[in-house]
Amino acid sequence: QVQVVESGGGLVQAGGSLRLSCAASVRRFLISAMGWTRQAPGKEREFVAGISWHDGSTDYGDSVKGRFAISREYAKNTMYLQMNSLNAEDTAVYYCNVRVGVDQYWGQGTQVTVSS
Question: Span 54-59, mean pLDDT?
């Protein structure tokens, strides 16, 4: 069973920054990709960012391009999401997902609240 654990959420003022972390308990050579999605109250889940585990290529949702940066620490099976210039629209529960082969595993989510 793959465990996915997020951390780093919290309350921040508009214009501020937060860094989320996601650790996966799986042999790193099995991971193909990791990513973040988010869901705000009353809204559909939205793609935030993704990273290819082995070559590090990245992809971002339009609403976060230029403000968020996804990265990974290969040796620690850990992924990060650096979030800058946060605004109220970024308030959501952020979920980490890990792709292992054809399977996908999700974390429990971490709340990010941006006060205006």
Answer: 94
Rounded Cα distance between 105 and 5, Å, is 10
Q: What is the rounded average pLDDT of the residues 106-114?
A: 97
Q: What are phi and psi of 56, to 5 degrees?
A: 75, 10
Q: Which residue has the tokens 């970024």?
A: 90
What pLDDT digit, counting tens, does each position of 6-15 carry? 999 999 999 9
Q: 110-115 and 92-100: which strand pairing? A: antiparallel
CB 4 within 8 A of CB 106: yes
Determine the average pLDDT of the residues in 68-86.
96
